[in-house]
Amino acid sequence: MSLISFDARNYSFETIYNFRDFGGYIGLDGRAVKTGRLFRSAHLSALSPEDLSEIGGLDINLVVDLRHAPERAKQPSRFPTPTPHVHEYPDAPDKVDAKVAPHEAFLEHELYTAADAHGYMIGSYTARPHDPGFQKIFADTLHFMAESENEAAAGVLVHCAAGKDRTGTLCALIQGLLGVSRDDILADYMMTLESVDIDKIIGPAAEMFSKRYGRQIDANAIWPMFGVTPEFLNAALDGMGDMETYATQTLAVKPSTLAKIRTRYLIG
């Protein structure tokens, strides 16, 4: 159950999409997840001075950038002052110099129908919990949340390119470890459809890709890559299984670290 309204949760920035608070749900033992400490969004490359200033007032101590190296190179992040700690997705050595991210390569060479896109999304969500790079940045984030110098809950902003797929997986893990129900995790994930007018942007995006790749790409074909559906996140949640077991055994996060996170991010 969400304890804050969508309007209170969603931030209407001019130059950043899908920025919202993913706290405010009932967690372990009926304790609420703190608000104003956990944020999620799309990339930070186009922030105006006004939006930078406003984000700077949110006391964000850690930015978790789940994008691949080619994405970061093309769209470098802008950070408020003082600059927070930044964790970046650690691409495998043979992928660091790649010209495009995996989903961009798929768009260019393999996407022709909505079924193609749907299959790619299911595959990427299914694989993500087992990817060594994601496992490392997931573990690093949890350790920061528990061990940051500030004894209070550190402010954390999780983002990728659109703030829904990679971001949604890590946010779901954090929420799950705090005891948020699966129904609430899925509801929070689905808010992208309210935060972003996908129908408005998908037509121009299809035109842009058609020109870039020299072949016609239909808007309906790319919708699965721009939208969200419970089936996608469920694939990642099923891959993680019991989240405490996933955190302690797969991510090698100690139970004492999880206890610290819960003390810091749950009320009461």
Short structural summary:
The protein has helices at 6-9, 49-56, 69-74, 102-109, 114-127, 132-147, 166-177, 182-190, 192-195, 198-213, 219-226, 230-240, 243-250, 255-265, and strands spanning 20-21, 38-41, 60-65, 85-88, 155-159. It is of the alpha/beta class.
Descriptive notes:
The protein is α/β, with parallel strands linked by helices and 268 residues long. 50% of the residues lie in helices and 8% in strands. Strand 3, helix 3 and strand 4 form a beta-alpha-beta unit. The protein is globular and about 55 Å long. The model has no long low-confidence stretch (mean pLDDT 95).
Shape: globular
The ordered string of helix (H) and strand (E) elements is HEEHEHEHHHEHHHHHHHH
Helix content: 40-55%
Percent of residues in β-strands: 5-15%
The total count of strands amounts to: 5
Task: Output the strand order for the largest sheet.
Answer: 1-2-5-3-4
Contiguous uncertain segments of 5+ residues: none
Helix count, DSSP H or I runs of 4 or more residues: 14
Round the Cα radius of gyration to an integer and report it: 18 Å
**First-to-last CA distance:** 17 Å
